[in-house]
Each structure stands twice: as C-alpha cells, then as structure tokens.
Amino acid sequence: MPERPSTGELSMVIAEYPHTGALIREPVRTPSGLLLRHVPVHPIVDAYRRMVRGLEFDICELAISTYLIAREHSVPVTALPIPLNRRFHHGDVVCRAGRGIRCAADLAGRRVGVRAYSVTSGMWVRGLLREYGLDDAGVTWVVDDEEHVRELRLPGNVVSAPDGRSLADLFASGDIDAAMTGWAGIGRTGAAAGGWAETDSSREDAYQLFADPAAEERAWFERTGIYPIHGVLVVHDETLRAHPRLAEELWALFGNSRADLMSEIASGSTDPEVQRYRELMGVVGDDPLPYGLAANEVSVEAAIRFCRDQGLLTRSPSPAQIFHPV
Asked: What does the pLDDT look like over 268-304, one tens digit per residue?
C-alpha cells in the first residue's frame, strides 16, 4: 500500500450512536489542529469491508472479529481500546417452527444461517452456544455474503447459499433450520457493498432459541464476566505514525463524547439506544460503555478465544498486543 500523506485532514467512519453523534454531525478539530471529517457509509459493515480490503479511511469503526482476523493477515490497522457498541446475543437466534429445536444442543446436525461466518454476532453466538452444550463444528453454517477479509480460510462446515437466494428466503422456505436475526442473518438481504435491504426478523414461522434471553444474558454475565464488544475504533498505521499524538487525542475526544451518553441516561432520555444502555446498567453495573484495556480485558480475551476455537484465528495474541496504548 502507498504511504499515507501526513495532511491536516483525516477521514473517519463511525456509526451514529448517542455517544458518537457530536463527532459526526460537524467536522471536529483535534487540539493539535487535525480536522476529522466524517464519511457517511451505510450500512456500516460496508465500511468494515472497505477498510480491511482497501484501507480507504484514516479512522474507522471495525467489528472486533474482523479486526482480529485482519491483524492476523497483516492488515496495517491498530485499534484503540474504545468499544463503540456493546450488547448481548442470547436473543439473536431464531428457530423455524416444527423443527423440534428446544435447546442449544438440538442445533447439532442442523443448517443455521449467518450472513458471513466471521461476523461478530455469529462469533459471539457460537461461543456462548458452546457453553450451553453445542459442538458448533457439527452445525452446517449457511452464508449468503462474503467474508470481509478475503484471505480467511473457512472451516469445512461453512457453505454458501445458492446463487440469488438470501437467508431470509431460505428460512421462509424451510431450507435452513435456524438463523441469526438482524443484519447478521435474516434481517437483511443483499451484500454490504450493494443491494442491501433491511427486512423484518420477526416472523410467524420463527421462535427464539432462548425463551427468556434477558434472564440468560444476566446469568451468563454473572457467570463469565463477558460483556460482548462489537465495534472498536481502528486507525491506519501510517496515520498513527504520521501523527504521534493522534491516539491520545482520539481517546480524549471519544471520552468526552461518551460523557454525552451518560448525561442522556441520567436525564431520562427516551431515545431507544439510550434506553438500551440504561437497561444494560441493570446487568453490567454503572458503566454500560467502559473504555480502556483493563475494563475490557475479560471480553477481549473471550473474543480472541472464541475466534481461535472457531477457526477464525490460528494464533492467540494477548489483548495488550492488539491495542494501541493510551
């Protein structure tokens, strides 16, 4: 890749959350004078793909599984310990009516849809299902989109959907037994780079694998201490070298923006995302969006372990090896 010029304007792509809105709506200037100009990309997963394949941006949100895989394949980006999105996943799997799936272990030998094998939601779901007795190597994972990192070699139990058929279509026709919901599964059709259309994951022929996901999530967190991370903030390595103070400045900017979320939580905001984090405080404690390596070490270690167990990584780096110090 060509060297990145050390200009005074940097491109940045992040999704809009209550704690990032102030960094998106207008260009932001760092104390050292760098202008951070947000580039709108929808869906945000298209930015993940464009970053790891073409290094299009200076600063970018990146799914943690995509980041870990990209690092192993020498993509020159480095994450700061700033998780941009958190949530649990016990409510992310739906089963088709009439298939006799009553618990996680019943998914053995079944066909389960996930947009791409390496999507972060799928990684977390496979990891937690193992703790409920499922050997996910015995599942046939059906995908209808590309992996972000082209060099990733997939396990033999991953198959592609027939050309022209989406997971939503396969679920409706009964060609798969269960699927991820939302963008990770039957909640969209089309590829991230084009033709993306959101669909309704709730359907009469589907039921959730876990009847009470909230109760399961609370018990799982109390047992494991794992609070799943989704997006992390990454920076092109050339940009970090060209601007030695950038990591420190981003840490401060995102810390101030994160304070906006806490203020909205305290104010009683009815914004759905604010309400979601307010509810998460009842599970994870007073800080629903902790920044910093120490506060996230358990969850990062779990992500690395799950990726290694699922064939997404061949090595197990330590958290300190994959995050820039701030």
From this structure: 999 999 999 999 999 999 999 999 999 999 999 999 9
Instruction: Please list, in sequence order, all residues whose beta carbon lies within 8 angstroms of the beta carbon of residue 26, skipping any fewer than 6 positions away.
Output: none
Mean pLDDT for all residues in the chain = 95
Mean pLDDT lowest among 32-36, 72-76, 187-191, 247-251: 187-191
Q: Which residues contact 279 (CB under 8 A, 6 or more apart)?
A: none
- Within a 10 A sphere around the Cβ of 309, how many other Cβ atoms? 16
CA dihedral 271, 273, 279, 285 (to 10 degrees): -120
Contacts of 75 (CB under 8 A, 6+ apart): 52, 55, 149
Q: Are 58 and 12 in contact (CB under 8 A)?
A: yes
Rg (CA), the chain: 20
Contacts of 251 (CB under 8 A, 6+ apart): 80, 82, 291, 326
Q: Judge contact between 234 and 79, C-beta under 8 A.
A: yes
Euclidean distance between CA atoms 10 and 240, whole angstroms: 11
Q: Is the pTM of this model over 0.90?
A: yes
Q: Which residues contact 308 (CB under 8 A, 6 or more apart)?
A: 314, 315, 316
Enumerate the H helices of 31-81 as residue ranges. Answer: 44-54, 64-72
pLDDT at residue 203, as a whole number: 81
23: Cβ–Cβ under 8 A, 6 or more apart, which residues?
A: 12, 14, 36, 38, 253, 254, 257
Kindly state the average pLDDT of the residues 183-206.
89
C-alpha to C-alpha distance for 191 and 49, rounded to whole angstroms = 11
pLDDT of residue 322: 96
